[in-house]
Amino acid sequence: MSAPEVKRLGILLFDGVEELDAVGPWEVLSWWTANFSEDGYVATLFSVDGAPVTCAKGMTIAPQHSADDVEPLEVLLHSGGRGTRPQVKDPAHLDRVRAWRRDVPLMTSVCTGSLVYAAAGLLTDRPATTYHGQLDTLAQLDPSIELRREDRYVDSGDVIASAGVSAGIDMAFHLVVRLVGVERARQVRRGIQYDPEPRV
């Protein structure tokens, strides 16, 4: 009997990535996939060239793969942070994102990752959100986007955009609900003890 196919969840890293944009969803998704392998998913970190990245506040993260050697993805998460500023104007990166869009069933973003998606044309005529300080920039990049200024994340089917920084954690839990179910998300939430308090 052949082994069941494993579905991969990939988080893109790059220099200037906002730490929690990547590490927050990684905690949710890696805890889930490590503790419930029967669900058939694995989480992985990758950068374009496979080299370690220096994050926005100085953390260094070594990815597990490059864009060339990461195996086919079921979900791709494009993190945000100041490193997205040059990506929005980088034709090679935008072409790379469009190629991923053709191959990856579900594209997700955290924070200003959605600016890159907008620049690549992935959010045309869709609802979306981003970091609160960049909502107007998102609208300028693609005026057809329906801005959801108050939403933590926006699921438009095959693209999910979340708001800034910690909102990526909530979006990652939404992914668990969508891919497996509410009960599994509750188990993961309990496992990582995610219950924000106090609300200030």
From TrEMBL:
Its EC number is 4.2.1.-. This is DJ-1/PfpI family protein. Residues 8-176 form the DJ-1/PfpI domain. GO terms for molecular function: lyase activity. It comes from the Bacteria. Pfam families: DJ-1_PfpI. CDD domains: GATase1_PfpI_2 (cd03139). The lineage of its organism: Bacteria, Bacillati, Actinomycetota, Actinomycetes, Pseudonocardiales. The keyword Lyase applies. Keywords: Lyase.
